[in-house]
Amino acid sequence: MNVGTNGPTVEIVNPSTGTTTTHNVEPGKDTTLPLPNDPGGTILVLKVGTGLKSQVVLIELIETGP
User: In angstroms, what is the C-alpha Rg of the chain?
Assistant: First the structure.
């Protein structure tokens, strides 16, 4: 994922469990995010930046890995 200039970290929030994980963004602004091992159909909230400059993306997990 390319984060651009919105912030140095990315948060992944699972609203159903309240679990939040924070991941640092590399200096080149490209980063790979590990997704939690939650069941398929789980909606995750990906948040980049803070305040008015923040952007939110909803991600639906289709299935979990092995």
Answer: 12
∠ at Cα 18 (13, 20), nearest 5°?
40
E strands within 1-66? 9-14, 19-24, 43-48, 55-60
Q: What is the pTM of this model?
A: 0.75
pLDDT tens sequence across 37-64: 888 889 999 988 777 878 899 999 887 6
Distance CA 60, CA 27 (A): 27
Do residues 47 and 15 lie in contact, with contact meaning Cβ atoms separated by under 8 Å? no
